[in-house]
Structure formats: structure tokens, C-alpha cells
Design brief:
Length: about 450
Amino acid sequence: MESGFYTNDLEHIVETDRAHIWHHLSSHKKYETVDPMVIVEGKGMHVWDAKGTKYLDAVSGGVWTVNVGYGRTEIADAVRDQLVKLNYFAGTVGSIPGSLFAEKLLAKMPGLSRVYYSNSGSEANEKVYKMVRQIAHKKYGGKKHKILFRERDYHGTTITTLSTSGQPERAAQYGPLTPGFVEVPHCLEYRNQYPDAENYGIAAADAIEAVILREGPETIGALVLEPVTAGGGVITPPDGYWQRVREICAKYDILLHIDEVVCGLGRTGKWFGYQHYGITPDFVTMAKGVASGYAAISVTVTTEKVFEMFKENPDDPMDYFRDVSTFGGCTAGPAAALANMKIIEDEGLLDNVNAMGARLITGLESLKDKHECIGDVRGKGLFCGAELVSDRETKEPMHESKVAAVVAEVFAQKVIIGMTNRSLTGFNNTLCLSPALIATKENIDEIVTAIDIALTRVFG
Ligand SMILES: Cc1ncc(COP(=O)(O)O)c(C=O)c1O
């Protein structure tokens, strides 16, 4: 078929996709017999595919991103206006939306005062790793360069962020990885590694201290953690954990980096996940929900204390942070982020997240009462998971093919949910839910009902 730049012939689009597009995180063999899914349109909580089928999206664009929902003309208008005024200049200089968004963001992050823009979560995390390495060279003769990461956490797709992957299936076959990164144990109480401990949260944090002492505190510059682990199983931290982690970092002069790429901007019912635990980090990174996918933007935020370390010796040409991100200078990102934040504030979406998150957890708990295969229900705000097991007593993880069958049965009811995916061998067994922050009671109930029906269909 002859086509111009644009076409409304969606069959042509699907065939072209099948012929030429390499989908992310996808095994392509199946597309020889089934059509690849092409999403054409979105409005609010819903998307439509190339066949015109409407779906309720319970995962905010597949990977917990579209926090304020689809079709927000106010964000599109803000981006359009900004692009016409000034689309780009390198981040070596400032911009109006860059300044304004930094001001609004930092007002919500007491104790933090500097913003560095780039364009993906991986990149935002790598900026921290580079800052930590440079501080080690500037202050500690290169020695305090190691960065600790946690089993089950994920921090990105580049070779170095994969070197901090606590999800072995993500990193497998991409080695050799970058040296200088060391794993600490997970904090998932359902899979308690310290059954004799009086307080699991303290024991899990103390396990980090044990790694620090083993490696030598003088070699460790930072610890990176997700506030609530996302793709590693939706792991809400146990009581007392974060406060103890903060103490340990302070004790050994280790910078605390919190990866808010998923939790950032409202997902858990506060602006940031760490704000549930009364702590102040040294670095915070964020990406997905910052502009809800209306533009690519990521942000690395830090303290004045860290920032000052990069301007101590102005006569030394190697003293400052010698990093650049070309698309960190795109003005569409902060313009979209400003409009996105205004929506969250104007529509009181944090309150909605708390109310609807409670409804979702209650719904999942009621499914747990009904279905033996649900071993554990976890979550904070509109960020929830249900871990499936084949035996409640032994907690034997459900085989991932069965978990995938549940996701498929939910999809058959025109509801899109997710599951932990190519994460940990034997533990890709958690259903993942992250509906947009605008979800209504009816949306939540529809999601829970669809899972209920799917569990019955798969497990009887
Ligand atoms: C916690 C966390 N950090 C970092 C990333 C990487 O973000 P990006 O895919 O934008 O590079 C992700 C992506 O899923 C994530 O879940």
C-alpha cells in the first residue's frame, strides 16, 4: 500500500511494526503467529489498540509511568507553547521551565537543593554513581568508590546501572559488568532470611552494616536503594528499616541514594516514597512519573553539601562535575513536569492515591482470603503487588507460566496488569498493579474483579 508520512490504515501500521520494530523486553517469536499490540490512543485510565479495543490500564503505560492519566491537553499545551518559544539549548545554560520546575520540586524536598537534568531513570542514577566516584577521587584518594545496591532492586538498563541490579536475570549475559558495586540482602519480610531476629526491619538493615564491615567502610561511597522495590516484587520496607539504614549510612560516612524512579511524584501517596519514613537522603533520582511520559525527563537531586564539593577548587580544571546529557537540555521535559505537578496539586491526587490505594489493598486482601494461590499482598498507595505461590505453607513460588496465564486472563477481560518479569529466577511470581493516580472506585473494583475471575479461571 502506498502511504505518505501519516496513515490511518492501522493494518499497515501493525504489519510494519511486525516487519521492523524491535519491541522492548520482548521475545519476538510469537509475533510470527499473533499480531503485535499497537496502542493507538489513550484517555484518562483507558487505552485503545489498533483494532479499536478499549482497555483499562492498571499499570500506567505498562511501566508505572503515566501518573496523571492519558490525554491531558494542559500538559500538551504547555509543551507546545514551550517548544515554540525555545525547544532546546544545552544544559550548560539555564531555561525558564528548568528553573521553575526545580523551584517547585525542591519546595517538596526539604534538605535538598540542587537539580541535575537528564532524560532517563538509568541516566539519572548513573549521574549519582559518577558524582560518588568523583567525590572518592577528590576526597579519599579514589578509595571510597564502592557503591552498595540491594538484592531484588533495579536501577536501570545501561551496563553500569545493570552492575547495580539486584535482579540477576536483567544482568545475565550482558557482562562483564562494571566493577566496584556490591550487593546487600533484600528486605522482603515474607521471605524472611533472619527467622530468629526479634525485629525483621532492624535485622535486614543490620545485614547492610555487616556488608559494610566486610568490605571496609573506607571503601564505600554510597548505598542505592528503592524506597519501595518495584520490579523485584513490590516490596514495602519493614518497620524500622529505613531509620536504621539512615543511621548506618551516617555512621560510616556513606551517601544515601534513593531511587524514586517509580515512586517519585505521588505513586505511594506522598510526593516521594522516602517521605513516609522521616529520613533525608543525600541523593534522590526520579524519572517516570515526573512528567507522566508526556516528555522524557529525569532528575538527579542532591544537597548543597554535595554540590559544594564540586566547586572547591575553581582553578583546577578537573574539579567540577564534568558531565553532560544532550537531551537534559530539552525544555519540553521541565515544561511537562510543571504542568504534571500542577495537575497532581489542583486535583488533590495524593489524597486520591491514599484512598484508592487503601481500596486496592483491601480488595487484594479479600482475594487472598478466597484464593489459596495468593501468598502475600503488599503495597503503598497505588503501587501494589500480590505474590502467587503454589503452596501457602512452604511458600513455594508459583511458576511464572501460571502467573503469566493470570495476566493473560485479566487481559482477556480488557484490563492490563503486570507481573515481575525477567527479574529473579524462580521468583517472577508477583502480580503488579500501578494504576494512574486518578483511578476511581469503579476502576479499582474492575481491576480486583478481573483478577478474581482470572484466578478462578487459571486455578479453579
Ligand atoms: C527503580 C527504577 N530505577 C531506574 C529505572 C530505569 O529507568 P529508565 O528505564 O527510564 O532508564 C527503572 C525502570 O524501570 C526503575 O524501575
